[in-house]
Design brief:
This protein has about 400 residues and is mainly alpha-helical. It has helices spanning about 1-65, 95-105, 110-120, 150-210, 210-220, 220-245, 250-265, 275-300, 310-390, and strands at about 70-75, 80-85, 90, 130-135, 140-150. The strands form two sheets. The protein has a three-stranded antiparallel sheet with strand order 1-5-4, with helices on one face. It has a two-stranded antiparallel sheet with strand order 2-3. Helix 3 (about 110-120) crosses helix 4, helix 4 packs antiparallel against helix 9 (about 310-390) and helix 8 (about 275-300) runs antiparallel to helix 9 (about 310-390). It is elongated, with a radius of gyration of 59 Å.
């Protein structure tokens, strides 16, 4: 193990020594170049100074002996918002507005138009020596314009013409936008006229194929009240059928007798079927007679033997009344069964009437909703048309 570790350590030291040597060489080369340029600068510094003086002299000579340039200044205040009819607003974002207007003021189109407008007064004017610079005063929409040119009058006229041409160009742009807007409004008016005609035709067609008077009547309380009446009738029939189905014969007979007595005392309550009431009355009378005879027989049984003539007569009377009560019972049961069948039929027919009325009410509601939509559409189109016309 030790024989292998020693060479590794030696190789590491060797590599570190190579890196240190290369770093020292680079530093030495940098110092040599630095001192070389320093000596060159100290020995030839007057060359740089002479070149700078020569350049300044040439510039001064050009400015002094060259043709003069004149400057003219002007200011313009440009509004950010321009009001147009119908309370609409033509506006541009302020962040883009200032830069856009400055570029437009010194654009080639504006400057070339300005030059052409003054060329008649200054035919020998060199347009290449005319220029204009635009600045914006901080936190304002005031534009500072500076024009330069070889002639004082021409420069002043050029600046004035540039401002006028800028204003004219802005007006042309607005007029062009207005023309486009007017064309769009005209097209919209024509489309609205067609829409209004179609909407009115749709209303007329709907009125031709549907009874508006019937729809208005059905939309009122008449149809709703009729449905409520049918549902109340259905509930009463179902209650009566349920009582006949679940109560015994005696309970139903007694209930009908109570209702008949209440109907006699209340003139507004309709009476039941006369035949059924008479059968039930006879059945109840026979049952009461049997009860009375059985009570009398029970009372006499304390003093008389069963073979006593009175006891035998009572037994015979009880048997006769029981046979008669069975006849009455059977007849009452038959009539109750018939009554249940009639109630079941009435329930079925009433339910069908309710379903039919609900379906008709749904159709009427849909038709009324369609008619309301047609009227609303026609009113909306007319309102839009009137708004555009004003």
């Amino acid at each position: 193990m030790s024989d292998q570790e020693v060479p590794r350590t030696q190789s590491l030291h060797t590599h570190h020594g190579v890196q240190s040597h290369s770093r020292s060489d680079a530093k030495a080369r940098f110092l040599i170049k630095f001192h070389r340029y320093r000596r060159l600068f100290l020995s030839k510094w007057w060359v740089l100074l002479l070149m700078a003086a020569l350049g300044a002299g040439v510039g001064f000579a050009i400015c002094y002996f060259g043709p003069p340039l004149f400057e003219s200044y002007g200011q313009m205040v440009v509004g950010v918002k321009v009001s147009i009819p119908e309370n609409s607003v033509y506006s541009e974002e302020l962040s883009n507005f200032l830069g856009t207007q400055a570029a437009l003021m010194q654009s080639g189109l504006v400057l070339s138009r300005a030059v052409e407008s003054i060329r008649g007064r200054f035919p020998k004017l060199d347009a290449n020596r005319l220029s204009m610079n635009v600045m914006v005063l901080p936190r304002t929409t005031i534009f500072q314009l500076r024009a330069t040119g070889p002639d004082p009058d021409a420069t002043q006229q050029f600046l004035q013409a540039a401002m006028e041409q800028y204003t004219a160009l802005k007006k042309e742009m607005r007029d062009q936008s207005s023309d486009i807007t007017v064309a769009g409004i005209s097209e919209s008016l024509e489309q609205l006229q067609r829409d209004a005609t179609n909407a009115n035709n749709a209303i007329l067609e709907f009125q031709r194929t549907n009874s508006i008077v019937f729809l208005e009547q059905q939309q009122g309380n008449t149809a709703a009240q009729f449905l409520v009446t049918l549902k109340q009738k259905l509930a009463a029939l179902q209650l009566e059928y349920g009582l006949l189905e679940n109560l015994t014969l005696d309970q139903n007979v007694e209930r009908h007798q109570e209702e008949a007595n209440e109907a006699l005392s209340d003139t507004n309550t309709p009476a039941g079927a006369p035949g059924m009431e008479s059968l039930e009355s006879e059945y109840l009378q026979a049952r009461e007679a049997i009860v009375l005879l059985q009570a009398e027989k029970k009372e006499l049984s304390h003093d008389l033997q069963p073979a006593h003539p009175k006891m035998i007569a009572l037994s015979q009377q009880i048997d006769q009344w029981q046979r008669l009560m069975e006849v009455f019972r059977k007849n009452c049961q038959d009539q109750l069964d018939s009554r249940k069948q009639a109630l079941a039929y009435q329930i079925d027919q009433t339910q069908k009437s309710i379903d039919q009325q609900q379906e008709e009410a749904l159709k009427v509601s849909r038709a009324a909703a369609t008619f309301d939509q047609l009227k609303a559409r026609a009113q909306e189109v007319q309102q839009l048309y009137d708004r555009l016309m004003t």
